[in-house]
């Protein structure tokens, strides 16, 4: 709802009726929110919100068991639709308020009709979660070339998430190149995993692969070692995943450097600004191939080719699982108490409250030795 329009008013009975997965409303004091589109995104699961549909969430937002962050509260405001009418039985008053509200909305619609006609085919017109007149950037234009001008305001701005798609470039081809559907990750990379995995296993099965420890001494590598090499590669990937996320994606660009700010936004900042933009939750294969190629060449220069490739296959499989888990953490509804449920809650805290910690995606293992574990909440 635009802040310039008068709020709509609803009775308690009306709010209580919206308690299904197709229409779910909640209250915060007297403010009414339609959180239907947020149900599957909620880290606590869809059922948790639906169990509180039509009720006041004031105590729930404060905790325990979880105190919601300022970003979470800001996020909730995107779903604001009106106010609760507390004058019991005052149907006439309610009708008068609604009529005034509708008249105000009609006037506002006339003022913005020209803008809406221009943006009719734009995907981000479907969302009205940002005050276009007060935000630091112009959401009607591509953001890639604007964010560098935010300078010292960029870090705070990019870590205030919104629920709307982002357009990075004006050129349709460049824009399309930044978007990837989740299924392209397994489609592109899993055939390579299967082929190289089988190739390495059959090569080791021939019994000709040896690891030279010195010029005079070497040991044979049997086929039974392949699963060990595979898991070593997977474990190595979890470390690479952590390092890339922490030291590359979460670098803090200097406030005076337009180009580094722009680069950061393109690499990862846009994901923190719009964490539920489903078209940008996995790596585009073209960009990922650069990291994959460097990983492969490093291993093959360090180890004998067959051993290096075996480790690489495990790492590549780990990468595929990483991207799939990352997508699921944003859009899935894992069972309460499961491993993925705890990962989802952990990752959402990283987005909304602890952007300088919680860098593990598939596992929180590396957060412990590097002291970046998201702390438990205390009340």
From TrEMBL:
Heme binds at residues 42, 68. Its EC number is 1.-.-.-. Its cofactor is Zn(2+); Fe cation. Keywords: Endoplasmic reticulum, Fatty acid biosynthesis, Fatty acid metabolism, Heme, Iron, Lipid biosynthesis, Lipid metabolism, Membrane, Metal-binding, Microsome, Oxidoreductase, Transmembrane, Transmembrane helix, Zinc. Gene3D superfamilies: Cytochrome b5-like heme/steroid binding domain (3.10.120.10). It catalyses: tetracosanoate + 2 Fe(II)-[cytochrome b5] + O2 + 2 H(+) = (R)-2-hydroxytetracosanoate + 2 Fe(III)-[cytochrome b5] + H2O; hexadecanoate + 2 Fe(II)-[cytochrome b5] + O2 + 2 H(+) = (R)-2-hydroxyhexadecanoate + 2 Fe(III)-[cytochrome b5] + H2O; a 1,2-saturated fatty acid + 2 Fe(II)-[cytochrome b5] + O2 + 2 H(+) = a (R)-2-hydroxy fatty acid + 2 Fe(III)-[cytochrome b5] + H2O; octadecanoate + 2 Fe(II)-[cytochrome b5] + O2 + 2 H(+) = (R)-2-hydroxyoctadecanoate + 2 Fe(III)-[cytochrome b5] + H2O. Its main location: endoplasmic reticulum. The keyword Transferase does not apply. Zn(2+) 2 binds at residues 271, 326, 330. Zn(2+) 1 binds at residues 245, 250, 268, 272, 347, 350-351. GO terms for molecular function: free fatty acid 2-hydroxylase activity; heme binding; iron ion binding. Residues 92-115 have a biased composition (Basic and acidic residues). GO terms for biological process: ceramide biosynthetic process; fatty acid biosynthetic process. The chain crosses the membrane at residues 182-204, 224-244, 281-299, 311-329. Residues 7-85 form the Cytochrome b5 heme-binding domain. FA2H is stereospecific for the production of (R)-2-hydroxy fatty acids. Plays an essential role in the synthesis of galactosphingolipids of the myelin sheath. Responsible for the synthesis of sphingolipids and glycosphingolipids involved in the formation of epidermal lamellar bodies critical for skin permeability barrier. This is Fatty acid 2-hydroxylase. It comes from Poecilia latipinna (sailfin molly).
